[in-house]
Amino acid sequence: MNIAAAAGLSLALLAGPALALDLGSLSEAERAAFRAEVRAYLMDNPEVIIEAVNQLEARKAEAQASADFDLVKVNAEEIFNDGYSWVGGNPDGDITLVEFLDYRCGYCRKAMPEVAKLLETDGNIRLIVKEFPILGEESMISSRFAVATRQVAGDEAYAKVHDALMEMTGEMNDVALRRLAEGLGLDADPILERMDSDEVTDEIARTRALAQRLQISGTPTFVLQDELLRGYLPADQLAQIVAEKRGE
After folding, report:
1. Are β-strands 86-89 and 95-101 bridged in parallel, bridged antiparallel, or unpaired?
2. pLDDT tens-digit readout, 89-139
3. I need a labelling partner for 230 at 20 to 30 A (CA). Which of 53, 69, 133, 207 fits?
4. Architecture of the domain spanning 76-246
């Protein structure tokens, strides 16, 4: 927000009911005097501008949180029970954490040990992973490989591939993916053949459509029960929000 806008907001907050005055009815001289008084006040009390900006930002955050709550509520079934996303942690946990991620996202990689720490210290959390490749072709290849692995070899194989892809560097191609699969004791051929199938394409497309409805444009993005959390969060902050959800 620029200073002029902040000053205008400050004036609105200060004047309150006085803004009912029709400023258009003032003469040019009266308007000039009024502006001078406002300017003098703000110059003498610059902290008012900061207070006004902070109040505006707080109101915007509250409005965003309310809108996000509604988005989660409307899309709850597909967020928490889509029938295809990998489920880890405690499948019967009382708290569900959903993560939209991209394997080439630096903050997703940074979040990985934080999520693992949360699951390790709190054995009552259900984790759902949503494949949301948005950072280019290598992101898409990675997600296709992960989804294909789950469809061909099951959830346990997916978990291993998921962790490996989060740490993988270098070019993402068939040679690298074959080496990764074989290193994990998996049969690479059926997974690689499955990658470009309609089933894999449909799953990723459905998750992308869900993310668009939730107005998710970056990774990682979490859904924690009824709340959208946009961006990286360390384990202690996640744990604090979990405690709040439980009413602790």
Report:
1. unpaired
2. 999 999 999 999 999 999 999 999 999 999 999 999 999 999 999 999 999
3. 53
4. 3-Layer(aba) Sandwich (3.40)
pLDDT in the model for residue 44: 80
Confidence check: pLDDT of 244 > 90: yes
For the chain, the domains span: 3-74, 76-246
Closest CA to 118 of 232, 236, 231: 236
> Where do we find the tokens 């449909």?
202
Residue 71's φ and ψ, nearest 5 degrees, are: -65, -45
Alpha helices by DSSP H, 197-234: 198-213
Per residue in 160-218, pLDDT (tens digit) is 999 999 999 888 999 999 999 999 999 999 999 999 999 999 999 999 999 999 999 99
Tokens representing 242 are 């979990």
Tokens representing 243 are: 């405690």
Distance CA 47, CA 50 (A): 5
What are the angstrom distances between the C-alpha of 138 and each of 18, 84, 106?
A: 59, 22, 14
H/E stretch holding 19 reads none
Element (H, E) at 89: strand 86-89
Q: Do you know the residue count of the chain?
A: 248
List, in order, residues 6 or more apart from 136 with CB less than 8 Å away.
104
Residue bearing tokens 């505006």: 56
